[in-house]
Amino acid sequence: MPTLPDNLTIRRARDSDLPEIAKMHFASYPGISMTLEDRISHFRDDPRISLEDNWVCERTDRLVGIFALYSFQMYRAGSLIPIGGIGRVAVTPEARLEKIAYWLMVKAVQIMDQNGTPISLLHPFRHSFYYNLGWGLAEQVRFYRISPSDIPVYPERAKMKPVVTNEDMEEVMACYHRFAALRNGLLVRDDPVWYEHILKNNLIYSFRSSDTGEVEGYIIYQYQTDPKEQSFTVSNLAVREIIWTTNRALKGILGFLSSQRDQIMAIEYNDHFELPLEHLLKDSLMVDGKRSMMLGAETAIIGSGLMGRIIQLRRVLGAGKLGNGNGRVTLNIKDDLNPENSIPLTIEIEDGKVSFPSRKSASISLSTNIATFSSIYWGALSLKDAVFFGKVEIEGKGDRSFLKEVFTFPRSVCLDYF
After folding, report:
1. DSSP string, 206-256
2. Is 296 helix (H, G, I), strand (E, B) or coil?
């Protein structure tokens, strides 16, 4: 693992650091509508993370960088896996282009490895920077800006009710848990996260089944002023989260959104689930979108979302099933930040279950870097495409068809911001 230069120290944040931390955060995240005092309070009182889980980089008795390391649990294949979420990465203006952020991420990988945290997630400020450090693309997101009048008025909307009481909120939380436990990538949420981070300053409606009385879906949203609109009664509706466990619940939520057409100019929604909304809309043109011969109609903006990284390769492979398949392969994974991952690793797979045979060789080898392998693990990149684009090299004699089955993973989705 790379060695930190002698003139840098990376340590846990202290209360006395907060004024400098707030200024650093302000310089790196000016778009967040918080004063310096607000930022100090946020670092001190954030319910998701303690102050000491923020790490600062000190150079000649002056702070020049910071990052936060969140401890989450992630749902994956019916199990819970520890995961490190990296956030609040910031460098002072005078110290930029001096590899401070690089050393912060080296330290983050080291901490997670020492703590036994096998995987990591982050929201990238620049994809190429994090890719070079081992994080690969983990998901794709579609941004929709939809007119409510283009959404069908599903009759199931009649079952949508406001969430008002604590009992209502607990049922919404239970609905999220049921939904998340059947998917890959969603995070476990405790009460402080729900009440202090997700529900605060948002509105929430839920779909309740008339058969069982159970909450089967919900929507969390807020109203936002449209800068082009002068009327005080008209706004946009920004969807934070849509969760559904039945088709009728999803129809209820969509019908609810459709019914807001009198006072809503546009519905803004970041879709992580690849919903086929263009097939549901009366007109698949985004609000303020363009038409052309090639596009037909500009329906959505597609973007790359979170990035994920495998911190402990052997533990990740042994933690659960891979895709269905049988065979043996030697993995040659290049990882500049964690040399343990770079040691050739032979695995044997039987019906998706991984073991580590004593004979540490195989007739087939798979070579790539940790960022590419992480993208495959998150289900964001297929092995076939990785080979086609030269990101993965497979060598050796014998039947290698099992690799496609073994390294096919369901898509991962994460709805939380940190």
Report:
1. EEE-TTT--EEEEEEEEEE--TT---TT-EEEEEEEEEESSHHHHHHHHHH
2. coil
Nearest to 348 by CA among 404, 403, 408, 410: 403
Cβ(156)–Cβ(255) under 8 Å? Answer: yes
Rounded alpha-carbon distances, angstroms, from residue 416 to 115, 158, 181, 234: 22, 29, 15, 28
How far is residue 7's CA from residue 162's CA, in Å, rounded to a whole number?
A: 56
263-313 pLDDT, tens digit per residue, is 899 999 999 999 999 999 999 999 989 999 888 899 999 999 899 999 999
Domain ranges of the chain: 8-117, 142-303, 315-406
pTM above 0.90, yes or no: yes
Which residues face 76 on adjacent strands?
A: 79
Neighbours of 125 (CB within 10 A): 12
CA 240, CA 7: separation in Å to the nearest integer?
43
Q: 220 or 3: which carries more pLDDT confidence? A: 220
Decide if 267 contacts 239 (C-beta within 8 A): yes
Question: Which of the pair, 153 or 211, is modelled with greater confidence?
Answer: 153
CATH 3.40.50.150 for the 315-406 domain, yes or no: no
Phi, psi of 172 (to 5 degrees): -65, -45
Strand duo 54-59 + 62-76: pairing: antiparallel
pLDDT of amino acid 33: 87
What would the two tokens of residue 87 be?
């956030």
Q: How many C-beta atoms lie closer than 10 Å to residue 227's C-beta?
A: 7
Fill in the DSSP letter of residue 184.
Answer: B
Q: Return the H-helix or E-strand segment holding 313.
A: helix 313-319
> Residue 69: enclosing H or E segment and its boundaries?
strand 62-76
Instruction: List the structure tokens of 391.
Output: 């990101």
293's CB contacts (< 8 A; 6+ apart) are: none
Rounded to whole angstroms, the maximal C-alpha distance in the chain is 73
- Asked if residues 146 and 285 have their Cβ atoms less than 8 Å apart, the reply is no
d(C-alpha 297, C-alpha 147), whole Å: 14
Q: Are 163 and 218 in contact (CB under 8 A)?
A: yes
Query: What homologous superfamily does CATH list for 8-117?
Result: Gcn5-related N-acetyltransferase (GNAT) (3.40.630.30)
Side chain identity at residue 124, one-letter code? P
